[in-house]
């Protein structure tokens, strides 16, 4: 979230506007590898070790970003952060499944989202103020000590949990290789989409050849066909995250370039959206009558309402203040759907597969973001003109709106079919 606020200044300092979407893309691609590693370790050794390793590693990535002399080193730092973040989130999911009975997991995931409230309130604002009055480097470096403190505070609690037996996890050979292949495929597709040459066509073909088989190995069978039950929940998570963050990625840029907002003010919608996220997560924890597919579909519709607000807020003729209310509603949709997909996946997973299925959920989330945010950057860059770098944002938001509503229809149809 701090990166989203500071990124316009970062790319300006490095004179690399063509790399605007890449700090998001490489983070998410490397997170795919991290989630597989975290899931496999959690299934075999339990969630304690991955949690204790991931946080210090993330702090290292923050320090590298803080001292980065150019975009290449910053992207390397985002790779380190992505690997660590992927391990971390899957380990948290597995720990929730171990600690809480099924009936309490919606509330547990609601609490996990609520833990974002204070950082969401102050994070983008502080990032904007640091960028505006000090340096964007403090957005990364200032967080590293806090991450290390968080790791230290976890130690007494995690020591109470013993590691499970190594024979409880099923044999799943080749998962890290498949995750690396998926990440490489995403990066290749994003690079090729920004080039116009015969070489880029070759890279597209090679990227697809690597990406598709990797996804089939990493995701539950039937995910790409939206099979009811676990597969459709995993697919919905990737579509939801990809579409939401594609729209959000260009909100600070549009507010700053088109409407003259300061970096701190341009980051406020991200804060508002995160508060809505927590509200939505709390709401879903109270729902026991609706089917999970219906709840996720409702979340998609709310994201669509937020994107519709962007259509009327971000263009030069728009009313920029609409973005604040609209993105609160979109955040509610994310809170509802993200927590609900996590609860559904854990409830449909046997204990030995919780790590694998949680990592599949996160891979769908992260690769959905990487592919769609990267594609969004290509659309905006392709339609940009001299003096109008955000001209492509409106067409992009319209495409996102259509996709969000189509996904809601897909979920409602899947909810009428009994899972196999």
TrEMBL record:
Start and end residues of each Major facilitator superfamily (MFS) profile domain:
1-418
Q: GO CC terms on record?
A: plasma membrane
InterPro entries assigned to the protein according to its UniProt record, in alphabetical order: MFS, MFS_dom, MFS_trans_sf
Cite the Gene3D superfamilies for this sequence: MFS general substrate transporter like domains
Membrane-crossing segments per the record: 20-39, 51-77, 83-100, 107-130, 136-155, 175-192, 198-219, 239-258, 264-283, 295-315, 321-346, 366-384, 396-414
Instruction: Indicate how the chain sits in the lipid bilayer.
Output: Multi-pass membrane protein
Top-level taxon: Bacteria
Q: Which GO terms describe its molecular function?
A: transmembrane transporter activity
- Which keywords fit this entry according to its UniProt record? Membrane, Transmembrane, Transmembrane helix
Pfam families in UniProt: MFS_1
> Does the UniProt entry include the keyword Secreted?
no
| Intracellular or extracellular location(s) | Cell membrane
PANTHER family, alphabetized: MAJOR FACILITATOR SUPERFAMILY (PTHR23501), MULTIDRUG-EFFLUX TRANSPORTER RV1634-RELATED (PTHR23501:SF154)
User: This chain belongs to which protein, by name?
Assistant: MFS transporter
